[in-house]
Design goal:
Number of domains: 2
Structural class: alpha+beta
Number of strands: 16
Radius of gyration: 31 Å
Length: 369
């Protein structure tokens, strides 16, 4: 803001030379005093005028022209109590009906459904921020693009499409004697992060998360084809005791060959020649299988995982007699935040910001405004 104050100068009437000179001196001196006074006033008054009401507001999605997304306003340093809490239309895939929920109430149901309430509070807070970021990317209230949910909903309860959600009534039923304590813990995690989202270069991130990484997360470009700078492979320590850290699946060689051949006829697998026909050595830096050679054809690790219902694409295949054993590491697609890893970090003293900054490289934590 630039402030310009005009100074009016009076014209002197003709007079004697001496009087005219003295008059000029008086006007010049008076002008200087007035100018100094105005400058002093500007130094006092201008900063409050410039910064009144400005609490660090920044414009999200500064690359809107490149991304095709609308700008979203975010305030860094704004009080969480001031964060917007719009009403969402959520499609319930079980009842096939629409629910109307406030954003923060919806996040409570998502966190309760997506992460065990027994996890550390800092892990739950990280989950709340990730869940809020995920849904806000699709909210018109923040300039997001529709998620394409049934009946024009902002979100749905299908975890494969949006995020899982569980109602307060079902939470109470599922938790039993721990219902009150768990509910208070979940709500505390959501309230303490109210309105907070993860951003990268002023844009809401794709806040992918998964159950268990198996020791290292995966690069987004190798799973979802989109190369995002904040979704890179990172180590995820402390997961060794998780239920899905390692699991094995055993099936007969005949069943293995039949399943693969049905999905990929060109493979031509034979039950008695699998060891020579199957090669899963094409892997990413995190250890996940990128592509398998199956007889006379190839299949992506992701497709193979889906075909056999495996926990992850990080697996080894071994053959013994007429048995095929597949040992998997981790659970889920492996991109973004590992929930088990987040809990391990929290147990080791990390707060939710440190957790998020670890799994989402180079992001910032901002508050919706």
């Amino acid at each position: 803001m630039r402030s310009t104050v005009p100074i009016r100068q009076g014209r002197m009437r003709p007079s004697v030379q001496r009087r005219r000179v003295q008059g000029r001196r008086k006007v010049t001196l008076g002008g200087k005093l007035l100018l100094l006074l105005l400058i002093a006033l500007l130094f006092i008054l201008l900063p409050p005028l410039l910064f009144a009401g400005d609490r660090g507001s920044v414009n999200l999605l500064t690359h809107a022209a490149a991304t095709g997304r609308s700008p979203i306003e975010v305030s860094v340093g704004q009080g969480q109590a001031d964060a917007p809490n719009p009403t969402l239309k959520v499609y319930n895939t079980e009842s096939k009906s629409l629910m109307e929920l406030d954003l923060e109430e919806y996040i409570c149901g998502v966190v309760a459904a997506e992460m065990p309430a027994s996890f550390e509070i800092e892990a739950l807070k990280a989950q709340a921020v990730a869940a809020r970021t995920f849904v806000c990317r699709h909210l018109p209230a923040f300039g997001g693009q529709s998620a394409g949910c049934p009946q024009g909903a902002d979100a749905c309860t299908n975890y494969a499409h949006c995020q899982a959600y569980i109602s307060p009534e079902k939470r109470q039923s599922n938790w039993g004697a721990q219902a009150q304590a768990n509910e208070e813990k979940i709500r505390s995690a959501v309230e303490q992060t109210r309105g907070q989202v993860a951003t990268y270069n002023g844009e809401l991130i794709q806040a992918f998360f998964h159950s268990t990484s198996g020791g290292m997360t995966e690069d987004c470009a190798l799973v979802f084809t989109q190369d995002l700078p904040y979704l890179k492979a990172v180590e995820s320590a402390g997961e060794e005791g998780a239920p899905h850290y390692q699991r094995s699946v055993t099936l007969s060689a005949q069943a293995f060959a039949q399943k693969v051949n049905a999905a990929l006829p060109k493979a031509g697998l034979k039950a008695d020649a699998l060891q020579e026909q199957v090669d899963a050595s094409n892997r990413s830096g995190s250890g996940r299988v990128l592509q398998l050679r199956l007889g006379g054809a190839t299949m992506s690790g992701t497709t193979f995982r889906s075909l056999l219902g495996l926990d992850s694409t990080n697996f080894e295949i071994s053959f013994s007699g007429d048995q095929v054993t597949i040992l998997t590491h981790g659970y889920g697609h492996g991109v973004g935040m590992s929930q088990v890893g987040a809990d391990a970090m929290a147990k080791n003293g990390s707060d939710y910001r440190e957790i998020l900054l670890h799994y989402y490289t180079g992001i910032a934590i901002s508050t919706l405004g």
